[in-house]
């Protein structure tokens, strides 16, 4: 049986992953659409910035976000001016950090889905006098739905598995910032290997089921 603190950490992790996935669906979709459609010279730099968390050590990203959200950082100045207070070591600080860290897991699958649509469906919609917004919402989005499903699953799963960024930004506050990965770390530090095994097994099974779902739903993964 998992302890109450383990269940609390799992609940906080699921909440964090759900909030981050929802935010990135809203923020990542226009970025993915722009990257899929633009011929601007800025496509390369913007695409590189989006993909940066894939290769940047989490501690590096967490460090710079901590500075940015601190009392002397631009985000910290903004949140204090708005009366929100400082974000580090709060749940919403974890949300901001996770949005940056999971951004490529949302944008890249959706961008690939938009690019796979091609020009033909969009041209047909234009000949039928559909506005750009109608074309986007009633043609592009439905055709890109598999990409959105993949992106949503990957973003949720990636957020669940975060450690370095959330530890740097949120620390280790029970019920506030102590997510499942940090809870496992605490168990290991305290030499509580049995408890660590239990929680780690839950994370392992969840990760496997996510990957299994992704691979079994891809076209060509089933025999005709």
Top-tier CATH class: Mainly Alpha
CATH topology: MetI-like fold
Measured by DSSP, the beta-strand proportion falls in: under 5%
Averaging pLDDT over every residue, what do you get? 91
The ordered string of helix (H) and strand (E) elements is HHHHHHHHHHH
Q: Which overall shape is indicated by the principal axes computed on the Cα atoms?
A: globular
Q: Gap between N and C termini, in Å?
A: 42 Å
Describe this structure in words.
This protein has 224 residues and is mainly alpha-helical. It has a single domain, classed as MetI-like (MetI-like fold, Orthogonal Bundle), CATH 1.10.3720. It contains eleven helices and no strands. Helix 1 crosses helix 10. The radius of gyration is 20 Å and the shape is globular. The model has no long low-confidence stretch (mean pLDDT 91).
Summarize the helices and strands and which ones pair or pack:
Layout (H helix, E strand, L loop, with lengths): L3 H34 L5 H9 L6 H12 L4 H8 L9 H27 L2 H8 L4 H12 L1 H16 L3 H7 L9 H10 L3 H25 L7
Helix pairs in contact: 1-5, 1-8, 1-10, 3-9, 5-8, 5-9, 6-7, 8-11, 10-11
Compact overview of the structure:
The protein has about 220 residues and is mainly alpha-helical. The protein has helices at about 5-35, 45-50, 60-70, 75-80, 90-115, 120-125, 130-145, 145-160, 165-170, 180-190, 195-215.
Task: Please describe the structure with a list of short key phrases separated by commas or semicolons.
single chain, 224 residues, mainly alpha, MetI-like fold, 11 helices, 75% helix, 0% strand
């Amino acid at each position: 049986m998992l302890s109450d603190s383990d269940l609390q950490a799992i609940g906080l992790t699921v909440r964090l992953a759900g909030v981050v996935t929802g935010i990135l669906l809203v923020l990542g979709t226009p970025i993915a659409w722009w990257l899929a459609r633009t011929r601007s010279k800025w496509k390369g730099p913007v695409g590189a910035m989006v993909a940066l968390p894939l290769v940047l050590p989490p501690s590096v990203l967490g460090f710079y976000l901590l500075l940015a959200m601190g009392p002397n950082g631009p985000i910290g100045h903004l949140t204090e001016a708005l009366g929100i207070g400082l974000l580090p070591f709060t749940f919403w600080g974890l949300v901001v950090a996770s949005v940056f860290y999971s951004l490529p897991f949302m944008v890249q699958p959706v961008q690939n889905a938009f690019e796979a649509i091609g020009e033909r469906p969009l041209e047909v919609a234009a000949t039928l006098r559909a506005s750009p917004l109608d074309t986007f919402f009633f043609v592009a989005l439905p055709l890109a739905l598999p990409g959105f499903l993949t992106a949503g699953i990957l973003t949720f799963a990636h957020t669940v598995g975060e450690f370095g960024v959330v530890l740097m930004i949120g620390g280790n506050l029970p019920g506030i910032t102590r997510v499942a990965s940090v809870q496992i770390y605490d168990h290991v530090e305290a030499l509580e290997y049995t408890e660590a095994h239990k929680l780690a097994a839950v994370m392992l099974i969840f990760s496997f089921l996510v990957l299994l779902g992704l691979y079994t739903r891809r076209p060509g993964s089933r025999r005709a």
